[in-house]
Amino acid sequence: MALLGFHASHEQFKPSHLVQLAQQAKAAGFDFVSSSDHFFPWSERQGQSGFAYAWLGASLQATGIPHMVVTAPGQRYHPAIVAQAAATLEEMFPGKFTLIVGTGQNVNEHITGERWPTKQERNARLLECAHIIRALWAGQTVRYKGLVTVENAKLYTRPEKPPMLIGAAITEETARWVGSWADGLITISRPKAQLQPVIDAFKAGGGEGKPIFLKVQLSYAATEKAAREGAFDQWRNNIFTSNVLADFSTVGQFDEAAQFIRPEDLDEFIHISADPNRHIDWISEYLEMGFDRITLHNVNREQEPFIEAFGKEVLPALKSVRTGAAH
């Protein structure tokens, strides 16, 4: 059956609060938890950015349900450290951790003082990192010199079975490339006419039969006004194209660019409604496209009402759709 998850946004909430939200999400019927891995938030209004890997251990222990995280090995994190972190989590919680990798954003990675590479270089670096991570999970001693350097690295603590290594992609070109090396794909919600070509490209590139995940950005609140205002306050900085999101280097640049965003501009990127039935319809369409996991990110600050309402009305209503959509 297709799985529905709760997104724990480190940019918006303190990690101690996110553990509580993850526990509430489990009790409400969510199947898994996803999380972001940032050094900075997208906006000063969000105001948080906890260390995801410390939090993951705590939340996995507190909930007992699967977790996944999107991370960017190669600059802020050496791939050997990412491999070790993921191996440790999977050893402690077998079958309950998934590592998602992407090329990252300058705003988070520039803290090392290294040059921010071009997209082509970042892709090449990510592929090197994926090979290094897999080799370390397999128990190999890794010596490598390329866009990243590894000197005699070996993991002594490894899980019986390595976690899935999922690739993140938004464009068709990247999705096709991800299909050639990743265990699966994750992308973000958009109209079906834009989303289906990304899925098709992933499958054509070597992803046929591999799992496909989706992150859905939505805003649910008690009223339409609150849902829209909450989305506008918290998430208007994050609707730019992937190139813009990748290349801005400071939180201030995101805030400055977002001055030109209007509340109505969000509708193309965020499902905004106070009506649970609207959300049921939107999510049903994604389930019918065959996604294996769908993460639901309520982008405003009203997380407890969202978890309660979706647990009572949305998740049960989607049960028959989820069963029919399962691969």
Features:
327 residues, alpha/beta, TIM Barrel, 8-stranded parallel β-barrel, two-stranded antiparallel ribbon
Spans where pLDDT lies below 50 across 5 or more residues:
none
Q: What is the overall silhouette?
A: globular
CATH architecture: Alpha-Beta Barrel
What's the count of strands?
11
**H/I helix tally:** 13
Helix content: 40-55%
Q: Tell me the fraction of residues in β-strands, as a range.
A: 15-25%
Rg (CA only): 19 Å
Mean pLDDT: 96
Count the domains: 1
Q: Which fold name corresponds to the CATH topology?
A: TIM Barrel
> Largest beta sheet, briefly?
8 strands, parallel, barrel
User: CATH homologous superfamily name?
Assistant: Luciferase-like domain
Question: What's the end-to-end separation, in Å?
Answer: 8 Å
CATH class: Alpha Beta
**Order of SSEs, N→C?**
EHEHEHEHHEEEHEHEHHHEHEHH
Within the largest sheet, what's the order of strands?
Answer: 1-2-3-4-7-8-9-11
Explain how this protein is built:
The chain has 327 residues and is an alpha/beta fold. The chain has one domain (3-325): Luciferase-like domain (TIM Barrel, Alpha-Beta Barrel). Helix content is 45%, strand content 17%. The chain is built from 13 helices and eleven strands. The protein has helices at 15-28, 52-63, 79-92, 106-109, 119-137, 172-178, 192-207, 224-235, 242-247, 251-257, 276-288, 303-317, 319-325, and strands at 3-8, 32-35, 67-71, 97-101, 142-145, 149-153, 164-168, 184-188, 212-219, 271-272, 293-298. Strands 1-2-3-4-7-8-9-11 form an eight-stranded parallel beta barrel, surrounded by eight helices. A two-stranded antiparallel sheet has the order 5-6. Helix 3 (79-92) links the parallel strand 3 (67-71) and strand 4 (97-101). The radius of gyration is 19 Å and the shape is globular. It starts with a strand and ends with a helix. The mean pLDDT is 96.
